[in-house]
Amino acid sequence: MKKFYVVILLLTFFAPKLSAQSSNWFTLPGSPSNNIKMDDIFFIDSETGWLASGQGQSLLYKTINGGSNWTTLSAPSVFYRCIGFANENIGWAGDLDNATVYRTSNGGSFWSGINISGVTNSGVCGIDVVDSNIVYACGRYYGPSFFYKTSNGGLNWTAQDMSSYATTLVDLYFFNKDTGMVFGSVGTFFSVNNKACILYTTNGGTNWTNVYTSDRGREWGWKLSFLNNTTGYGVIESWRSTDTVGFLKTTNAGLNWNLTRFETGDTNFHAQSILFNNEMTGWIGGYGSAGGGSVLEGKTYETNDGGLTWVGLNFGYNINRFRKVNDSLIYASGKRVYKYSPKFVSAEPVSSIIPESFKVYQNYPNPFNPVTKIKFDITSASKGIVKLKIFNILGREISLLVNEYLTEGTYEINFNAGDIPGGIYFYQLQSGEFSQIRKMILIR
User: How far is residue 18's CA from residue 331's CA, in Å, rounded to a whole number?
Assistant: First the structure.
């Protein structure tokens, strides 16, 4: 995966000397709140995202400034369990209580419900967007199990009864329109023979193969996430009154899975979300009340050794979904919205010269492999929240290098492209009304 390292040199007479520092997870102070949890979150880039808060609220939210502020959307009052978007306009949200998918074509300003015919007493628990036409969904976590599919952008849906394969379905992940998997359970729901399972398809859901069944009952699959096209993870929710959490890992695109369990010391924790940012660092969030108390504050656990050991964090309660934008930006939905944005910064004054104009310079060296420098000037007119983004040739944002308040001065950044493929990339500097883009070439 991509790795980006940032070193910023501040050149200004007035700036104090700063020491090395790093930032990780923090609560977005302007985000909505839910005393239980907000069910799902989805971002198409670093700025624009949507939030589904079904439990106890029946609300949808939108942000266009990276989560600093959120707008409550005008949408029907239903139990929104999942949400996904193909682009800034077209998106879908699933209703847990009914087999209905809500569709928007204007970024969430208006939503219309499409009832999935042939389905009774079920709902939509997970959704995965392949493109603006093909979308898959499944449901639900307490049954009955169905797999849903649209090939015309959600205008019409078909339903496949999955009861011969699974009792419950919670989440799903597709690499493309043909190959993917669903995560749920087999056996009588909430019984001693209710076990987590993963079903795999190579023809868009026409046929399924069971590639994993857990080794004990009263637990079921909850969330899937993939680090790349081969390495993925799944977390198992357990109701066995034990303090162990189980998570799965695949290194061959979901064909085989290995189970690891670890102890939390909390018998009231029920794991419900998982994401790895790289092979070593990952997080598991979940639902529960620490020590059996009345306050619902399931902890978040972190590993930095690939899942061998885990520690509880003092952030992120009842997290039901992690969403990764890039290696340096992740969002999570729980009782609040949480944001992961690590930076490695050192800065010290080396000149008293104040720039006369807003400017981003050509990176050097260019072409480069794999490290290059990007220098830019911030003036008194352009000071404020400064963003420096990297895009690939398709216009997809791959990194947000800088996203913070900067005063006037000259800054220089070391950009390490890690293991991203060679090719043409663009970097964009933004601050208020000012914006400038330049091209750079990574060679291998």
Answer: 27
DSSP assignment string, 150-161: ESSTTSS-EEEE
Q: Confidence band (pLDDT; 50, 70, 90) for 290?
A: low
Q: Secondary structure of the chain: what % helix, strand, coil (to 5)? A: 0, 50, 50
- The total of other beta-carbon atoms located within 10 Å of residue 293's CB is 10
Q: Provide the pLDDT for residue 13.
A: 28
The stretch 316-345 carries a mean pLDDT of 87
- Alpha carbon distance 386, 186 (integer Å): 50
pTM, two decimals, is 0.77
Is residue 320 within 8 A of residue 285, CB to CB? The reply is yes
Torsion (CA) 336, 189, 258, 126 in degrees, nearest 10: -40
Give the domains, in start order, of the chain with CATH numbers.
25-340 (2.130.10.10), 345-442 (2.60.40.1930)
Look at residue 61 and tell me whether its pLDDT is greater than 70: yes
pLDDT for position 420:
79
